[in-house]
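fyi for ur records
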Amino acid sequence: MVQFVLGQKDSPEVLNFERAWPKKLEKPIVNLFFDPSSIIITTENGLKCSSFCVSFSTNTTVKRTGKTVTPIDIEGPKFTMCNSLDNGYLDGKGKKQYLTFKLEDTEIERPTEFEFLCDGFRPAYPRKKEEAVYRPEYGHLFKIIGEGGEEGTIPLYEGTCWPSFVC
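which gave:
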């Protein structure tokens, strides 16, 4: 396989083979609503994420509240927050998930660009003292413009065989 296949791009006939498993995902859609105390996220078109992270830039301080957020980088001006173990996964069918936080200054201008990482993040387990692991190279990174949707979800990874690596 390495000698003959690895490193070669699949033809359109192979990528769209109707019995391929898992099925090639339609264009992934991420919907993201930001307010001064939370980010509400949904995914559509079958985009399932067992873990997810959101990054954005702001000129105020962000503090974690509740248990729905694992802060990865909250030193600003770019903040990265991920879902905690007690926060559910994204089901690809529009189920809402929340990242709750507190902004020091709630009168800020709402960010208009976000980075969204589907998987590529492993939260620390409560019984272990290891740190949460944030590895975008193991997940699928998207740029979200505005509130996302079909036009505002831009994949930043290469490949057409989402969610698998081989079609």
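DSSP finds two helices and twelve strands in the chain. thats all i got for now
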